[in-house]
């Protein structure tokens, strides 16, 4: 691997909707619950979407369960997807 360098790709900028809560491994569950309360009460939204990847999945599930108990009449629709990440490397020397 010393003779190769990773190719840096430009990231796609995805637009985050108001109804979306992106859960991270570093965030707190109470902050996500507060955001859901703001969406339902102040912004009068009828639904929300919780997204997470990797180590944040457990926090996303916990947040969804607490939100369902706190706000009566909600229904959960679960969608699982996979994301394939491909790293590209270019040789540093000619002929590799």
Question: Can you put this structure into words, describing what you see?
Answer:
By secondary structure, the protein is an alpha+beta fold. The protein is built from 2 helices and 4 strands, in the order E-E-H-E-H-E. Helix 1 links the parallel strand 2 (about 20) and strand 3.
TL;DR of this structure?
This protein has 96 residues and is an alpha+beta fold. The protein contains two helices and four strands, in the order ββαβαβ.
The side-by-side strand order for the widest beta sheet comes to 1-4
Spatial gap, N to C terminus: 12 Å
Q: N-to-C SSE series?
A: EEHEHE
Helical residue percent?
A: 25-40%
What structural class should be given to the helix and strand makeup? alpha+beta
Number of strands: 4
Radius of gyration from CA coordinates: 19 Å
Q: Kindly estimate the percentage of residues that lie in beta strands according to DSSP.
A: 5-15%
Mean pLDDT, all residues: 90
| pLDDT < 50 stretches | none
Instruction: Outline the biggest β-sheet.
Output: 2 strands, antiparallel
The total count of helices amounts to 2
Tertiary shape: elongated
Supply database-style keywords.
single chain; 96 residues; two-stranded parallel sheet; 12% strand
Secondary-structure topology with pairs:
Elements: E1 4-6, E2 20-22, H1 29-42, E3 49-51, H2 57-70, E4 89-91
Helix pairs in contact: 1-2
